[in-house]
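Curious: explain these tokens?
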Amino acid sequence: MYLFFYYFRKVLILVVLVIPMNPRVGIAVAVLLALLLGAVSLVLIKSSEQPAGERIVTDMAGKEIKIPAKLERVVTLNSEALEMFYLFGEAEKVVGVGSWSKLDPILPKIMKLENLPDVGTASNPNVEAIVSLKPDLVITYYAAGRYGYETPKEIVDKLEQAGIPVFGIILAVTKPADFNQYYEMVDNFGKLLGKEKRAKEINDYLRGIRDRVVRETSKIPEENRIKVVYSWGDMTRIAGNATTMHAFIQLAGGINIGGELPQPYPTVDAEFIVSKNPNVWVCWHSKTRKYSVSDILKDPRFQSVSAVRDNRVYEEPELGSNWHPVRAHLFLLWHAKTYYPSLPLDFQKIANEVCQRFYGIPLPSG
């Protein structure tokens, strides 16, 4: 900009000297100078529209959000976002957390969450408590009304009206599952925190685990692949194709019996499960689940199902949400080994290595 004004002054002097000697040339130069000055003025006006110290980022829902150039105070309404701040070495920036984060099987073991205010759940946050913390940013779930844990739009609007930008994360739910969304999430947080190099390190390691699993499961002939049903909160509420679990089942070498259902977790009739006759039945691990493995094994409606007859009904390990990128790879490994016990994959050994690397603790028992 200094050079522009330096040359502008030179040209202005030239115009003053030229006009008396050659009016036509002088006027032409003056017109060009005026046009140039106008163009530069537009650039200056445009650049002033975004105040100094701000930047624009895009969340996982594709929404552009204006945030401070450097984040200092963040509220995370979901455990996945909180873990991302931990993995990127930015945990001290978190000033408030969602209720479920304090019940997570890993985060309370590696972070001092008792010192952080609980601001409610993502689906029912305490807006007043959040505003009182004066955060630069709130991070929550976004799923266009298709996911029970997401923050309602009217609450997002309230936060934004209070001058607090809201960053949304989403995996599948609004579209068919894609395991690459885990790497997208890590990349998003790398950009958000200005730590793209760390994001690449995390993703390179996680891709190595995925590739190790896929190398083994890709050897399984199509005719030998087992059929899998995954039950969520209710026994007959199963994974459709708009959920990360669909991607897990496929990469682990299985066939999801709900793979043609477009909803995330639709409720189906018992007859649907019986007609698909899954070889393996996997149950979501959660204290809010309304049934047990024993309930499935004893249910008279399912006695003809192969998974029940062969006693192949399992509960996932207690690792919390499978939306966590690191833990997702442990779930993938567990599913592959559970479907095909003869695979040369040592879940316990690899899971311990992963937990030590990222969390500094061994794999939690349970």
Observations:
- Residues 2-48 form one domain.
- The CA atoms of residues 242 and 336 lie 20 Å apart.
